Each structure stands twice: as C-alpha cells, then as structure tokens.
Fold this protein.
Amino acid sequence: MSFERVKEILTQLTKEHIILLKEVEDLENQLEKNFSEEVLNRALSFIQEKVSKHAHIEENDLDEALQEAGITDFDIDALNFGHRTLDEIAEHFEFLVNLYKKGEREYRGKDLQKEIVKTFHEFAQTLKDHFTEEEHFFFPDILKYDLERFE
Ligand SMILES: [Fe+2]
Ligand SMILES: [Fe+2]
C-alpha cells in the first residue's frame, strides 16, 4: 500500500470537519432558541453517531493506513487523546439530558436547561479546538512523512 490511502483519508476527515462544525453550530443555536426534547435527541445522535463515527475513522482506518504505508513512529495516541476529553464532556451531557427527560428541572440547585446548553457549548468549543489541532498540527505532521520518503 502507498501513501495515497493516507492522503485520501486525511482529505475525507478534513471535509467531515467542515460538515460537523456546521452542524454543531446549528445545534447550539437550536438549543438556545428552540430548546425541546426533539433538539436534545438530535444533539445526542450527533454526538453518539456522527462524531463517534468520525473519531472511529481516525483511530482505526487512519491508523491502519499509516501502518500499511510503513509509518510506524507516528504517535496516534496523541491524536486520540483529544477524543477522550470529548467523551468525558459527552458523558456529562448525556447524564444531564437523561435527568431532563425524567422530568428534573434542576441540577445541584441550578437550572437544568441552562446546564445542558452550557455543557453542549463546552462540547462544541472543545470539538472546534480539536479539529483545529488536527488540521494545523497532526495532519500536516503526517503529510511530512510523504516528503521525507523521497529525501
Ligand atoms: Fe479527532
Ligand atoms: Fe477529526
């Protein structure tokens, strides 16, 4: 296998970033202006399906393509570390949403709806920072291997 597959995956991931960022912003707006269980469910499936599928490609497909291209010294764990931070925020978000669905309206003396909106905002911000880090730091680092092969 060549480096082509690695490049293909990086292009695909970068395109997905644009789509996911647009959707996360839309969900943030909806949660602020149009808070409902329906929007909460959309936010949950965004996190559980779309973002997790994207992370899965990075942790598995990209890792596999790197191995096949003979790149064994790239630290994929550093890239994956950001996903664990996102998972932790997602877990808290899911916990709060479940409370809301059970009819709770307060969490630790605070307004539950506000806490949910705040936590989703934190998720969105962390996702943005993570994508920026990948595009400006990790992905260019991977692409450097392609140039080094011919030195
Ligand atoms: Fe990622
Ligand atoms: Fe990514």
About this structure: Residues 4-148 form one domain. The chain is about 85% helix and 5% strand.
